[in-house]
């Protein structure tokens, strides 16, 4: 996590940069053979490109034709794998949540003292969302749909159960140790962590423009990261 702070990624990047990267990934020798013989790799490539497209343009603006062109595949193949444009969109949402939850599970919070576990979880959330602005865009787009498509996915709901269990375990251990106050709902705590980390990326450009602050420098990133961690920790102290 320290390395992330010292060398913060560009918060948003450009659509053209992501598309060039997707083209380079797709334009490999034997791509046609891979498409036929390696469906997992094909689907992963489609999801990677579709993530950038849906993040940039939303569900309504993204085009299957464009995704097919960027992955050197066909609309027919995309529909074969995902059923429809909406099916691909839901698969992108599921993949986005699966990635963050998988990495969270590797933090081994249960091996850390409660306050250190909380600091680790909050710091990870700051770092991950800063490094993955497309995740923020996808969530923002889905909120514009009032959670319609997330609500259709039992996978996403199941993926988010472990993180609540992890937050609850850290919090309850802290209460038992006397380092956290005993009147906080773990889901509310998770919401507060998410809110601070989300705003840090989603509103960085408008906030920076209004208050004439550069929020992308290593120093600003590190300072904001520490502030978010301290706010959450102090909120829980007795």
TrEMBL record:
Keywords per UniProt: DNA-binding
Name of this protein: TetR family transcriptional regulator
Presence of the UniProt keyword DNA-binding in the record: yes
Entries under InterPro entries matching the protein: Homeodomain-like_sf (IPR009057), HTH-type_TetR-like_transc_reg (IPR050109), HTH_TetR (IPR001647), NicS_C (IPR041474), Tet_transcr_reg_TetR-rel_C_sf (IPR036271)
Domain HTH tetR-type: 40-100
DNA-binding region: 63-82
Domain of life: Bacteria
Cited PANTHER family: HTH-TYPE TRANSCRIPTIONAL REPRESSOR SCO4008, TRANSCRIPTIONAL REPRESSOR
Coiled-coil segments on the chain, per record: none
Chain residue ranges for the region called Disordered: 1-37
């Amino acid at each position: 996590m320290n390395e992330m702070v010292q060398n913060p990624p560009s918060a948003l990047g450009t659509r053209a940069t992501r598309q060039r990267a997707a083209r380079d990934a797709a334009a490999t020798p034997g791509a046609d053979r891979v498409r036929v013989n390696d469906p997992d790799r094909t689907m992963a490539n489609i999801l990677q490109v579709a993530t950038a497209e849906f993040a940039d343009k939303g569900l309504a603006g993204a085009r299957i034709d464009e995704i097919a062109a960027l992955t050197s595949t066909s609309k027919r193949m995309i529909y074969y794998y995902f059923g429809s444009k909406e099916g691909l969109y839901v698969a992108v949402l599921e993949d986005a949540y699966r990635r963050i939850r998988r990495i969270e599970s590797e933090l081994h919070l249960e091996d850390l003292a409660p306050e250190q576990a909380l600091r680790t979880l909050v710091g990870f959330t700051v770092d991950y969302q800063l490094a993955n602005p497309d995740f923020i865009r996808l969530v923002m787009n889905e909120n514009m749909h009032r959670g319609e498509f997330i609500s259709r996915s039992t996978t996403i709901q199941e993926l988010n159960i472990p993180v609540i269990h992890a937050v609850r375990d850290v919090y309850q251990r802290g209460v038992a140790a006397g380092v956290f106050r005993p009147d906080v709902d773990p889901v509310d705590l998770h919401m507060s962590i998410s809110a601070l980390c989300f705003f840090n990326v989603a509103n960085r450009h408008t906030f920076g423009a209004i208050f004439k602050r550069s929020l992308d420098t290593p120093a600003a990133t590190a300072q904001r990261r520490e502030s978010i961690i301290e706010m959450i920790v102090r909120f829980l102290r007795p």
